Amino acid sequence: MTRASRAGQRLRVDVSDARGRRLSGPDVAGLGPWLSRAAPSGTRGRITIALVSDAVMRRLNRQYRGADKATDVLSFPADAPDFLGDLAIARGVAARQARAQGHTARVEIRVLALHGLLHLLGYDHEVDAGEMARLEERLRRRAGVPSGLIGRPDRRHPPHA
Fold first, then answer.
1. pTM score, two decimals?
2. Considering the domain boundaries, does residue 80 fall inside one?
3. How far does CA 125 lie from the centroid of its chain?
4. Distance of alpha carbon 68 from alpha carbon 131, whole angstroms
5. Range of 24's domain?
6. How large is the C-alpha radius of gyration of the chain?
């Protein structure tokens, strides 16, 4: 049983900036309800998503992964039954990836949030023989968003956690 299925509520998503202030606006409008619907069935608990600058993301990536470069999304799993963890998404990286993929920053943030959520649920595409990639593709298609992170042919940034 995963942490997500042990918790007693549906997925709740709080979106903030790097200082913990609630965010709104077109890029994050509806992100929480969308991610709750897009999540694997049975996902329960709470996550926070911080949209941060590339500089903040670079510091986080250096501190936690030893990579001195901004990445797109970092996942910080929690060890609590009702709190799955935190995601950090780099706004600048997301905007550049959105342009490169031919969609909006709003769509890219959703792709990143779904990808990060799967990491919080324990999936790891670097070691799982394609399990996370297949699940991400299925969830992404069901939720109506374009290509996920795994398998993008032109990824030029370091892997995320």
1. 0.83
2. yes
3. 14
4. 29
5. 3-143
6. 14
